[in-house]
Write a structure and sequence with these properties.
By secondary structure, the chain is mainly α. Helix content is about 40%, strand content about 0%. The longest helix has 14 residues.
């Protein structure tokens, strides 16, 4: 602080005594002096340890939260009236459990109505599927086993979504 005050008072006297880039000629600013200022000592110390890896780079905070706290953010399934899915792995089902089946029809009519093509119909008939009511039991993984291509699976999922209706809650 003493150095700063000396430099500031010298700058107030004019540019002949001190400037922003040139300190005044005073024992406080004598670089030949053996004593280092605390600021310079700290700066040199940080420069030396800069290359060395620091043990405490950032603080780590660990929180233990009980399940009762997390249950505050989950809705109560019994109170919300949501119907549980019949099977636990609903992401693999062709007809999602949140959807109601559309009108029952032959798979021939279904494929023609949704422009799915002969190959989709052939794969279903080779595996014994005849009506759309059986689509609720089909899984995406089973379609892959039947030889459906990825594009055909996508078209079929789109057709089933258009054919089925969302359940009312």
């Amino acid at each position: 602080m003493e150095r700063l005050e000396a430099w500031a008072s010298a700058m107030l006297k004019g540019n002949t005594f001190a400037t922003l880039t040139q300190p005044l000629r005073h024992k406080l600013f004598d670089i030949s002096s053996k004593a280092l200022s605390p600021v310079m000592a700290r700066r040199m110390e940080s420069q030396q340890t800069k290359g060395a890896p620091s043990a405490a780079a950032a603080p780590v905070f660990n929180f233990s939260i009980g399940s009762e706290v997390l249950s505050l953010f989950r809705p109560d399934m019994a109170a919300s009236g949501v119907v549980a899915a019949p099977n636990s792995d609903s992401s693999d089902a062709l007809v999602h459990p949140s959807r109601k089946l559309g009108p029952d029809m032959s798979l021939i009519d279904f494929c023609v109505m949704h422009n799915l093509g002969e190959t989709v119909l052939d794969r279903f008939t080779k595996n014994g599927y005849k009506n759309t009511c059986s689509l609720k039991f089909v899984k995406i993984s089973e379609l892959k086993e039947m030889g459906f291509l990825l594009g055909e699976v996508a078209m079929l999922r789109d057709a089933v979504e258009g054919w089925s209706a969302a359940l009312e809650v």
